[in-house]
Amino acid sequence: MESSPAADPATRSRTDWPAPVASGPVDTTVTVPGSKSLTNRYLVLAALACEPSRLRLPLRSRDTTLMAAALRALGTEIEDETDESGNPESWLIAPRPLHGPAHIDCGLAGTVMRFIPPVAALADGTVALGGDTAMQRRPIAPVTQALRSLGADVQGDSLPFTVSGHGALPGGTVRLDASASSQFVSGLLLAGARFDDGLTVIHEGKPVPSQPHIAMTVEVLRDAGVVVDDGEANRWHVEPSEISALEVDVEPDLSNAAPFLAAALVTGGSVHIPGWPHATTQAGDGIRDILDMMGASVRLDREGLTVTSDGTIGGIDADLHDVGELTPVVAALAALADSPSYLRGIAHLRHHETDRLAALTQEINRLGGDAQELDDGLAIRPKPLTGGFFHTYGDHRMVMAAAVLGLRVRGVVIEDIATVGKTLPTFTQLWTQMLRHDGR
Ligand SMILES: O=C(O)C1=C[C@@H](OP(=O)(O)O)[C@@H](O)[C@H](O)C1
Ligand SMILES: C=C(OP(=O)(O)O)C(=O)O
After folding, report:
1. Going by DSSP bridges, is the β-strand pair 388-390/412-414 parallel, antiparallel, or unpaired?
2. Which residue(s) pair with 273 in the sheet?
3. 439: CA distance to ligand 2 center in Å?
4. Given CB 3.0 to 4.6 Å as the disulfide criterion, which of 14, 46, 79, 130 pairs with 416?
5. CA-to-CA distance for 243 and 241, rounded, in angstroms?
6. Where is this region: Disordered (predicted)?
7. Mean pLDDT over all residues of the chain?
8. Is the pLDDT reported for residue 7 higher than 50?
9. Which residues fall in the annotated binding site for phosphoenolpyruvate?
10. Contact 294, 310 (CB under 8 A)
11. Of all residues in the chain, what percent carry a pLDDT higher than 90?
12. Regarding beta strands 53-56 and 297-301, do their DSSP bridges make them parallel or antiparallel, or are they unpaired?
């Protein structure tokens, strides 16, 4: 159904998708592909490591394909390995000397635009970074300025920009304001061990959002043998060292599991996600508490996560500062709830794939809902909704939110379904499969 995931939505052909209505309670198991955030961190570390790494069950989506292409353009060898039936299973990643000239397409992937420049600063040659039209409004200046202060030659403070490296970077201490995105910190830390003097990052400004993602960065660095000190708030220190090879299985993407779990609430059914990790740094794990607050029964056991609901959805007052990427799906549930919701701490979502606060407000209201943008979030008062066209603004999570609404609201048509390929190209297959198991 989805067209090539590797193209700017502004230029490729687009197909709108009538969201299927659930004919009854879903009762099914959904196997969710690997985590975007883990796949792209592992790829970067593997390219900077001293030996080849193997990444099993990586996510294959637009964001991860772009990351792999970026690292290949800088010289890294990435080979596909298949299982006995010939299905793609892992990536074998052989680090090679990093070099330019190279042109990197960041697409609309925050991880590519924020994680690649510190790697490019370690390459020998000029690296030009570009991306989707919509990417030009996503902030990057704190990273380009930080790299300059660490000794790199960087031209430009928004896409497109260039990084001209000489094969090494002195490193040292850098102060920046990461209140717009945790990815500024993560990107610098991922490459920091390869800087001559290592790296200390100090955040100065309003609180950094999406903190679990920084914890994830620290965790994968430690998995690769790097010494990281994160004992003090807003300060991270990475010792200069080799980066060890990784041999890892990628956890399922818990944020991408969210719309399927939401379907249990909307239809009054049950959804099981196998392989849900018991200990994880993925921000998406926060969906368990949120669905519990909304009234679902949430059970994590050795088999995975099961969410069961009688179809009543309670409104919530919740701070989503750490788990911002869950907001679109939670907002969709809030619009179908039986009491108002206040989603707070998410002003930074204005810098995501689109201005998510404006987009959610506009699209929920277009269907007859009552959503209101707050300074730092959304107020959503449930109202009966009617079908209509749902704009997705190139944002995969807007597609997921629309699909959740469409389970109950007849006639929701989702703009440009291929948008979801940013992190989940198999979304429509998984969604329609889920609805075939509607307990009837
Ligand atoms: O580092 C990462 O993998 C991510 C960090 C977060 O970004 P922000 O800190 O910009 O919210 C998150 O929203 C994004 O989906 C993935
Ligand atoms: C904000 C997101 O993505 P990105 O990695 O492009 O920032 C997201 O996936 O919700």
Report:
1. parallel
2. 305
3. 34
4. 14
5. 6
6. 1-27
7. 96
8. yes
9. 36, 110, 138, 183, 356, 397, 422
10. no
11. 94
12. unpaired
The answer to whether the CB of 131 falls within 8 A of the CB of 84 is no
pLDDT value at residue 86: 85
74-77 contact pairs (CB < 8 A, 24+): 74/47, 74/98, 74/99, 74/100, 74/102, 74/104, 74/119, 74/120, 74/123, 74/127, 75/99, 75/123, 76/46, 76/47
Alpha-carbon distance of 170 to 199, in angstroms, equals 9
In DSSP notation, 265-279 reads HHHT-EEEEET--SS
Q: Is the ipTM of this complex over 0.90?
A: yes
User: What gap in Å lies between CA 344 and CA 177, rounded to an integer?
Assistant: 21
Which pLDDT value is given to residue 437? Answer: 67
> Considering only CA atoms, which of 260, 240, 157, 155 is closest in space to residue 197?
240
Pocket lining for ligand 2, CB < 6 angstroms: 109-111, 325, 352-353, 397, 423
Superfamily of chain region 17-33+252-436: Enolpyruvate transferase domain (3.65.10.10)
Hunting for tokens 């108002």 — which residue is that?
340
Global pTM reads 0.97
Q: Return the structure tokens found at 140.
A: 């990057």
Binding residues for 3-phosphoshikimate: 36-37, 41, 181-183, 210, 325, 352
Is 242 labeled as catalytic in the residue annotation?
Answer: no
CATH of domain 36-159+168-244: 3.65.10.10
Nearest to 340 by CA among 376, 370, 310, 384: 370
Q: Which residue of 181, 282, 349, 354 sits with most ligand 1 atoms within 8 Å of its CB, as the best mutation to test the pocket? A: 181
Is the preceding omega at residue 20 within 30 degrees of 0, hence cis?
no
Inter-residue contact 357 to 365 (CB < 8 Å):
no
Per the listing, tokens 């790296």 go with 199
